[in-house]
């Protein structure tokens, strides 16, 4: 796709400042998402994927802050916008759904009202119109009997229903980008599939781009066209989602893919152990020099321990940050 | 479900006091100010004079009934002022934090350090006696507890998912405070407000007793007590009935506050069901 990407992140660094010292919780983050595209960000807990999302919507709070780099939304730098300008983007152009739908809904307000408020806030509708639109929004996320459900409080809804309501709120104003931070982690597996399906269909219908954040490589590859894998605050590999399973290039991604259980394989039947990646993720304050994966990497050589690898373009398409990539 | 006696009794007493205040012109036997008759001075309670008469022959029952208007007006209005100030300061301080939080905290500590009655006395001394100055004096001096509670709630609510979600959805600060935080902290605020009304009624009585409240001859429970001081041995009914009125109203408000706390506190609610 040509032209200005919907959102473009360039060399973003996020600082964690606990008062006495300042460390980079994430650095060198670059990616772009085009209009209507689906992009996934995968990594273990603490690798920096959620704070990257928060940075995109300008919501980093102390002790976290943007330490460098540029985020552009339709070519405009988000950091340079006024507080009111950022607010105008949030909810209206960029929306977000959260991991735990119970805590993300206000317990003292009926869901219909919470959806309607979006229309009042961003589209200048009257409450009467907004309430009507809220019923339609609930219907669009396939909540049965929406005209009755709008009066329900969040605690009267099941987990799946709450997440549907949350999606209705997020998509209310027809945003251009939907950030989904572990949207189904708190749900049952069956409900999870329904929600993902719903989210994908709605976004495809409306041309909404999705930035999906998850630790579940399979889920992300299933939803997204392109996937970026993060490790210890850096993006180590960015590929088309089919390629990442077929021919992972970074040793960390290779390890991740190898550790996935496969239906019918010997490992899944319990005969042999699943592959694992030796070692643990380094603490944020003691990232190793050079490539951050080097202490756990079987292919590590001297250069990996001293020089930080740059991102290289792969011939097959995609980016990788490794000295020894195939 | 267990019968909440405190809520029912407290609510009934408070409702009774409000009804008496509202219906004073119909309940009173005589005009509380004008119907003085020295021929009836210092009559003990009887069928004619339910609560007796004072040294000017005014019907104590009628004066107590009309006094409810002053006490309740002061109690309700001044506590409303306190609640608004306390919530506005506490909520914004807890939500925004930073230097504003420090300022509000310092102010709250100052208010807590100075006994509020003394502070109210000082304000009354500047403004002069009267109902309006009473409302101002008591309305400006008792917001610190409300403020503390609003601030603490705002601090804990601020990190709730739905408050963050509201920020992500493009809500402004004011809208977040009003639609997300305020409704979620209303329970404790209402409880504190009810208890605060009780203490405002007492403060009104104290200030009127000290001669700084409602001007004579208009009746207020506190000023009636003050007037009755000299005759406490010869005509005890002069102090007993206004005192009883204060006692029952404050008791009612405190029971109501306790009862509301039981109902509004989710923990005690789950224990009861």
From TrEMBL, chain A:
It is found in: Cell inner membrane. It is a peripheral membrane protein. The keyword Isomerase does not apply. SMART domains: AAA. Residues 7-257 form the ABC transporter domain. GO terms for biological process: peptide transport; transmembrane transport. The keyword Cell inner membrane does not apply. Its main location: membrane. GO terms for cellular component: plasma membrane. CDD domains: ABC_NikE_OppD_transporters (cd03257). One of its GO terms (molecular function) is ATP hydrolysis activity. Keywords: ATP-binding, Cell membrane, Membrane, Nucleotide-binding, Transport. Involved in beta-(1-->2)glucan export. Transmembrane domains (TMD) form a pore in the inner membrane and the ATP-binding domain (NBD) is responsible for energy generation. NCBIfam families: oligo_HPY. Belongs to the ABC transporter superfamily. This is Peptide ABC transporter ATP-binding protein. It comes from Bradyrhizobium neotropicale.
TrEMBL record, chain B:
One of its GO terms (biological process) is transmembrane transport. Gene3D superfamilies: MetI-like. GO terms for cellular component: plasma membrane. Belongs to the binding-protein-dependent transport system permease family. It is found in: Cell membrane. Its main location: membrane. InterPro entries: BP-dependent_transpt_permease, MetI-like, MetI-like_sf. The chain crosses the membrane at residues 185-214, 234-256. Residues 68-257 form the ABC transmembrane type-1 domain. CDD domains: TM_PBP2. This is Peptide ABC transporter permease. Keywords: Cell membrane, Membrane, Transmembrane, Transmembrane helix, Transport. Coiled coil: none annotated. It is a multi-pass membrane protein.
């Amino acid at each position: 796709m040509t032209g200005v990407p919907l959102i473009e992140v360039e060399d973003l660094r996020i600082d964690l400042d606990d008062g006495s010292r300042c460390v980079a919780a994430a650095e060198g983050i670059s990616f772009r998402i085009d209009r209507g595209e689906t992009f996934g960000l995968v990594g273990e807990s603490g690798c920096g994927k959620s704070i990257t999302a928060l940075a995109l919507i300008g919501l980093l709070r102390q002790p976290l802050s943007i330490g460098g780099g540029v985020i552009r939304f339709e070519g405009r730098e988000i950091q340079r916008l006024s507080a009111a300008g950022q607010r105008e983007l949030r909810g209206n152009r960029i929306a977000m759904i959260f991991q735990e739908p119970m805590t993300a809904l206000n317990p003292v307000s009926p869901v219909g009202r919470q959806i309607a408020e979006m229309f009042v806030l961003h589209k200048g509708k009257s409450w009467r119109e907004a309430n009507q639109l809220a019923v339609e929004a609930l219907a669009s996320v396939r909540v049965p009997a929406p005209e009755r459900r709008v009066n329900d409080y969040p605690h009267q809804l099941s987990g799946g229903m709450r997440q549907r309501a949350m999606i209705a709120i997020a998509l209310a104003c027809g945003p251009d980008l939907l950030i989904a931070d572990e949207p189904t982690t708190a749900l049952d597996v069956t409900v999870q599939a329904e929600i993902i399906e719903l989210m994908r269909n709605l976004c495809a219908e409306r041309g909404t781009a999705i930035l999906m954040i998850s630790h579940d490589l399979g889920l992300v590859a299933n939803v997204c066209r392109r996937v970026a894998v993060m490790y210890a605050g850096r993006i180590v590999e960015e590929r088309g989602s089919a390629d990442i399973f077929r021919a992972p290039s970074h040793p960390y991604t290779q390890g991740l893919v190898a550790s996935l259980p496969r239906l019918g394989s010997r490992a899944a039947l319990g005969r042999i152990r699943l592959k694992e990646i030796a070692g643990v993720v380094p603490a944020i304050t003691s990232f190793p020099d050079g490539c951050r994966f080097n202490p756990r990497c079987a292919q590590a050589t001297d250069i990996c321990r001293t020089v930080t690898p740059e991102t290289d373009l792969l011939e097959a398409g995609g980016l990788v940050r490794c000295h020894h990539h195939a | 479900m267990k019968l909440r006696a405190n809520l029912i009794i407290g609510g009934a007493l408070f409702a009774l006091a409000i009804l008496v205040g509202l219906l004073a012109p119909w309940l009173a036997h005589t005009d509380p100010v004008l119907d003085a008759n020295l021929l009836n001075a210092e009559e003990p309670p009887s069928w004619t004079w339910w609560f007796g008469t004072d040294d000017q022959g005014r019907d104590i029952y009628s004066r107590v009934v009309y006094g409810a208007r002053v006490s309740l007006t002061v109690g309700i209005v001044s506590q409303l002022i306190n609640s608004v100030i306390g919530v506005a300061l506490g909520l914004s301080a807890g939500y925004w934090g930073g230097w504003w939080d420090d300022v509000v905290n310092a102010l709250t500590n100052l208010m807590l350090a100075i006994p509020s009655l003394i502070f109210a006395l000082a304000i009354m001394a500047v403004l002069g006696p009267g109902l309006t100055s009473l409302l101002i004096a008591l309305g400006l001096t008792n917001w610190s507890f409300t403020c503390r509670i609003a601030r603490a709630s705002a601090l804990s609510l601020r990190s709730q998912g739905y408050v963050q979600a509201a920020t992500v959805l493009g809500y402004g600060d004011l809208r977040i405070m009003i639609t997300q935080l305020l409704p979620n902290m209303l329970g404790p605020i209402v409880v504190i407000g009810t208890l605060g009304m009780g203490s405002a009624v007492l403060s009104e009585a104290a200030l009127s007793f000290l001669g700084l409240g409602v001007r004579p001859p208009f009746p207020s429970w506190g000023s009636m007590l003050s007037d009755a001081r000299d005759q406490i041995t010869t005509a005890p009914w002069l102090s007993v009935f206004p005192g009883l009125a204060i006692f029952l109203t404050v008791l009612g408000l405190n029971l109501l506050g306790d009862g509301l706390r039981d109902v509004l506190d989710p923990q005690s609610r789950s224990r009861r069901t």
